[in-house]
Amino acid sequence: MSAGEPVQQFYSIGDVCQLTDLKPHVLRYWESQFRFLSPAKNRSGNRVYRRREVELILLVKHLLYTEKYTIEGARQKVDAQRKGGEVRVAARAALTLQTLDALETELKELVRSLTTDTPTEEGT
Questions:
Q1: CA 84 to CA 90: how far, in whole Å?
Q2: Which residues lie across from 10 on neighbouring strands?
Q3: Cβ 21 vs Cβ 1: under 8 Å
Q4: Which residues of 31-46 are buried (b: 16+ CB within 10 A; e: fewer)?
Q5: What is the per-residue pLDDT for 2?
Q6: DSSP codes joined into one string, 46-115
Q7: Phi first, then psi: what are they for 41, rounded to 5°?
Q8: How far is CA 114 from each of CA 7, 103, 105, 124, rounded to the nearest angstrom?
């Protein structure tokens, strides 16, 4: 599923999984590794993520999966960005990169489907 920019005020763990293309167990593990990822819980005990946390999750995902940081390296990088007041800019950049990657994937799939659906000269 392609990631769109989060627009709601609160998100369930299922919503966050769809937005980030991550599994729930990954999000729960990251909560234990990154102290800044601590979603509130509603009356039922379910996690409720705010937009800021979704942006931070996308930043962590970018650092771990794209830039190939270790968990400790990503933690240090985000902590440094938070201290420098740069975390929001970095999180938005990660969201933009993920959106562009998703668009590129969709375009490649579209081109592939168009090239396989067009009749060849031999068939005409």
A1: 11
A2: 50
A3: yes
A4: beebeebebeeeeeee
A5: 45
A6: -EEEEHHHHHHHHHHHIIIIIS---HHHHHHHHHHHHHTT-HHHHHHHHHHHHHHHHHHHHHHHHHHHHH
A7: -120, 140
A8: 32, 16, 14, 17
CB–CB of 60/34 below 8 Å?
yes
Considering Cα of 37, then 39, then 40, then 41, what sign does the dihedral take? negative
pLDDT of 101 > 60? The answer is: yes
* pLDDT number for residue 95: 72
Determine the pLDDT at residue 121. 59
Q: Encoding tokens for residue 51?
A: 């937009």
CB 62 within 8 Å of CB 97:
yes
CATH number, domain 10-71+85-116, options 1.10.730.10, 1.10.1660.10, 1.10.3720.10, 3.20.20.370: 1.10.1660.10
Question: Average pLDDT of 75-85?
Answer: 87
Place of tokens 């659906």: 117
CB-CB contact of 27 with 57 (8 Å): yes
Q: Give the chain's end-to-end CA distance (angstroms, integer).
A: 37
